Amino acid sequence: MFSGLPNILTLSRILVIPIFLAAFAVPAPAANWVAFGLFVAASLTDWLDGFLARKLAQTSEFGRFLDPVADKLLVAAALIMLVADGRAPAIAALIILCREILISSLREFLAREALKLPVTMLAKIKTATQMLALSVLLVGDAATGIGLSAKLMLDGGAWLLWLAAVLSVASGWGYARHGISMMLATDKDKDSKGVADK
Fold first, then answer.
1. Is 197 a domain residue?
2. Which of 18, 134, 151 is nearest to 82 (CA)?
3. CB contact at 8 A, 70 and 39
4. Does residue 108 lie in a domain region?
């Protein structure tokens, strides 16, 4: 089940979360850089495991299940810790988390009917914006150590997170409409077959 380098990389994103959380207990500014480094390294494995799975022909149902779970757990951990630390706007974080829960539930429901929601370009832009926002906020005021403005980093990261929240709503609405239309079409087909059988 856990065999294959892609699955191991995916699993590593989950295993690094406790270390990522513990990094927030380290005195600043080391805490910022340790958390930032762990987050970026874990995020890079998201691209790398997919690339290797295709390159090595090691795609699996377990990998397809675990990959989005690992992503969402990592993002949720970062959002919760940043909100608790006062670096991230709570409402924007809540919007993003609610969207992830709703779309994950929709995907799970559709999977029971052998239906899939294709990933949209808007969703990819949302993810990229979200990861950039979290990375900037994780550095936060530690950026003064490399000559950058702490206010610029924190305000810029917050604005990027709000943008990610807006994109979350927009892409989530698109997914919801598409998912609901597929469900209605499936129900209509079932009704038509039921009438035909009678």
1. no
2. 134
3. no
4. yes
- What's the start-to-end Cα distance of the chain, in Å? 45
Q: Full-prediction pTM beyond 0.70?
A: yes
The one-letter amino acid at 113: E
What's the number of domains the chain is made of?
Answer: 1
129: which residues sit within 8 A by CB, 6+ positions away?
160, 163, 164, 167
In a domain, 196, yes or no: no
Which phi and psi angles does 118 have, rounded to 5°?
-70, 145
Which residue range is the domain that position 120 belongs to? 5-189
Q: Please state the three-class secondary structure of the chain as a single string.
A: CCCCHHHHHHHHHHHCHHHHHHHCCCCCCHHHHHHHHHHHHHHHHHHHHHHHHHHCCCCCHHHHHHHHHHHHHHHHHHHHHHHHCCCCCHHHHHHHHHHHHHHHHHHHHHHHCCCCCCCCHHHHHHHHHHHHHHHHHHHHHHHHHHCCCHHHHHHHHHHHHHHHHHHHHHHHHHHHHHHHHHHHHHHHHHHHHHHHHC
User: Rounded distance, CA 134 to CA 126, Å?
Assistant: 12
104-157 tens-digit pLDDT: 888 888 877 777 878 889 999 999 999 999 999 999 999 998 888 999 999 999
Which CATH number belongs to the domain containing residue 107 in this structure? 1.20.120.1760
Chain centroid, CA 162 distance in Å = 15
Whether residue 198 lies inside any domain: the answer is no
